[in-house]
Write a structure and sequence with these properties.
With 243 residues, this protein is α/β, with parallel strands linked by helices. The chain has nine helices and ten strands. The strands form two sheets. A six-stranded mixed sheet has the order 1-2-3-5-7-10, sandwiched between helices. Helix 1 packs parallel to helix 2 and helix 2 runs antiparallel to helix 8. The N and C termini lie far apart (42 Å).
């Protein structure tokens, strides 16, 4: 199993548990996470979901050797957005590429102050296409422009400033405690109705742009430039276009 599940006082924690590949988004992990989220949606004992990780990396993004079907991945992101219960990202480490899509899809996202983030797609010849569905409606446009285009790393404080994160703190669990307590005090109906209000713009983006972005992503990944970028990444060298 790549997803570990625990439950305490109405909060179900889903842990990405594949540290050997830095919790890369494989077809298996995406499938198991989709199944776990589905169970949470229909479990009356679950008031909210926390999405976290083992190891020093929340997620390294799509696994280049065993990637998920793009439609399945988009479906999982949409599932997080439409789940009738809040989903909270708890990050204590590195987040790269598609992993940022998971963070962006969550309703609340918190990270330890030593966490860092990067949209690395541009450096292997592709683009953050499908993860734009939850991210662009929530992030500052100028910040998204910078980090999409440069692929540079940015820290948790900058991630919070740009809208990727809700909050950051030295101790992420201490910071999350009052938020989780607030969710426990909220009514299930109130949470579901309130979530519908705050996710409406994100869902509009899914409904309007999902098909176009899946096709755009597929075209990029099939290109000769992407093949060079992915080969260079796996061989731990610079791709041919680096100046």
């Amino acid at each position: 199993m790549t997803i570990a599940t625990t439950h305490e006082r109405g909060i179900t924690t889903l842990t990405l548990d594949s540290p050997a590949n830095r919790n890369a988004l494989t077809a298996r992990l995406v499938g198991e996470l989709t199944e776990a989220l589905g169970k949470c949606a229909h479990d009356g004992d679950v008031r909210a979901v926390v999405l976290t990780h083992t190891g020093s990396t929340f997620s390294a993004g799509a696994d280049l050797k065993s990637p998920p079907n793009p439609y399945t991945f988009v479906g999982m992101l949409r599932q997080i957005v439409t789940l009738p219960k809040p989903v909270v990202a708890r990050v204590a480490g590195h987040v790269r590429a598609g992993g940022l899509g998971l963070v962006g899809a969550c309703d609340i996202a918190a990270a330890s102050s030593d966490s860092d983030f990067a949209f690395t797609e541009v450096r292997i010849g592709v683009a953050p296409a499908v993860i734009s569905l939850p991210l662009l409606p929530r992030m500052d446009p100028r910040a998204a422009g910078r980090y999409y285009l440069t692929g540079e790393r940015f820290d948790a404080a900058e991630a919070a400033r740009t809208g990727l994160l809700t909050l950051t703190a030295d101790d992420v669990d201490t910071a999350l405690a009052p938020l989780l307590d607030g969710l426990r005090r909220a009514s299930p109906q109130g949470l579901a109705a309130s979530k519908e209000l705050v996710t409406a713009r994100v869902l509009e983006t899914f409904d309007r742009d999902a098909e176009d972005l899946v096709q755009r992503s597929a075209s990029l990944f099939a290109s000769s430039e992407a093949r060079e970028g992915m080969t260079a990444f796996l061989e731990r060298r610079d791709p041919a276009w680096v100046l």
